[in-house]
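Why do we bother with holo predictions? Because pocket geometry can differ from the apo form. Keep that in mind while you read this record for nicotinamide-adenine-dinucleotide.
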Amino acid sequence: MSTAVVAGVEVDTRHWIGGERVASAGSFEDVSPLNGEVIAEISRGGQAEVDTAVAAAKAAFVGWSRTAPAERAAILHRIADGVEARLEDLAQVETLDNGSLLRSHRRGVMPRVAMNFRFFADHLLTLHHDDFDTRGHRNHVSWDPAGVTAIITPWNAPLMLATWRIAPALAAGNTVVAKPPEWAPLTASLLADIAAEAGLPPGVFNVVQGLGVEAGAPLSAHTDVRRISFTGSVPTAQKVGEAAAKNVTPVSFELGGKSPLLVFADADLDLAVDLAVEQFDNSGQVCLAAVRILVQDEIADAFREKFLAKAATVVQGDSREESTGIGPLVSKTHFDRVDGFVQRAKAAGANVLLGGEPNHELNAATGGFFYKPTVFADVDPTMEIVCHEVFGPVLTLQTFGTEQEGVAMANDTDYGLAATLITGSPERAERVSSQLSAGTVWINCFFVRDLSAPFGGNGRSGIGREGGTWSFDFYCDVKNSVFSPNGWATTKEAN
Ligand code: NAD
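The structure, written out:
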């Protein structure tokens, strides 16, 4: 079968290679976490499809890299137009595919997908470094497209995360082979349709569907790939990194996190509670989620009471309903993984303040993979539940005494993607933010993201930064050309 109808939208389930739909002999099942039903049979790509896609991208690079930047930017804006025109289709399909909230897709995520294309199209046209002089020689810096770019992405915000890389890679003049996540592969296929309608030449953007080990691994190891942007877990990054190292292919890694939410005694308590409850968004399947809540002793009891009362009001249910606050986990495999973390934490002596189990009632009624929002207290810093990324609706609550103790606890992690601090003191905000080890620090706010800001993580949260010019620095071979003042022909004939 070459198409599936998902939420009333026809989606091609084959690869998109060299401007054509290509089927594989085998397929894999795409299951909706809302009801456990198979919603599509997806072409199952491997080495052969990757080879064909990389060859198509390599061939298309010659023309695309030489296309005038303004023309490339115009096509990217037309892709953004196409995303906006099909916003409802994309939102409905993504919701059924990965279980995230429909209202978030409509109002935040899909508009941001369009914005990814518009922002990097516009930013491309402003890329500039002033020429500078070395003993009369003029230095000129340029951003040259690197070549075929592999983009491997996860399922928690599939189209948004993919386009945050696809857009700058294409804007820079690269060609792309994308490997979407097998648990939510559908919107990448719709994007291929949109890009083709927008006039993106064949081979410039390719999609190879498939499992990580079968399609992702050969793509990471391909000798004709010039850049790998990988977003996903640390264990997979280690494999991608090994494959990339053999070819000395530059990588950008956006990985996991175990971010802290530091609440100081001088904080606005209601704000702190609101931001803490926000960490259940997308069922906690957010790399940036501040899942370690650290509260200063003086307000620990008051915070705990208000936080638990508010967290208990979060409505879990069908992600298509406006009133739903949190939906299911993405798959049965992930559901079992999250439950494993929770059960081991209980066995290790952590105290369940909220949840601590699957939402049996909802799962029985729907066939979906719902897990109750969960909060643990009485945890110690060496416990698995405090140290390891769960990627589910599971938070830990700890307390600290002095500011220095709070900072030390916040930084006591292998990760360093983000940190959030809540305080009423501007001086403390400056002091503490400068001491936190994280790629992004939010002060009295959460998830405020600007596409021109650098984004990435410290430690095991990743390698490199993307966003604004940082994206072009990664997706390009930055070149310095040095022009001597000597040796210029002076006669008309020489010109
Ligand atoms: P994952 O590592 O299992 O998979 C990510 C992608 O890699 C998928 O497309 C998968 O098919 C592919 N893959 C799997 N094995 C591969 C291999 N051997 N070679 C090449 N590719 C392979 O991660 P996931 O479970 O899909 O996503 C969750 C993880 O992603 C979490 O750790 C989360 O924190 C992280 N994440 C990070 C960010 C960020 O920006 N830092 C954003 C979202 C998610």
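The chain has a mean pLDDT of 97.
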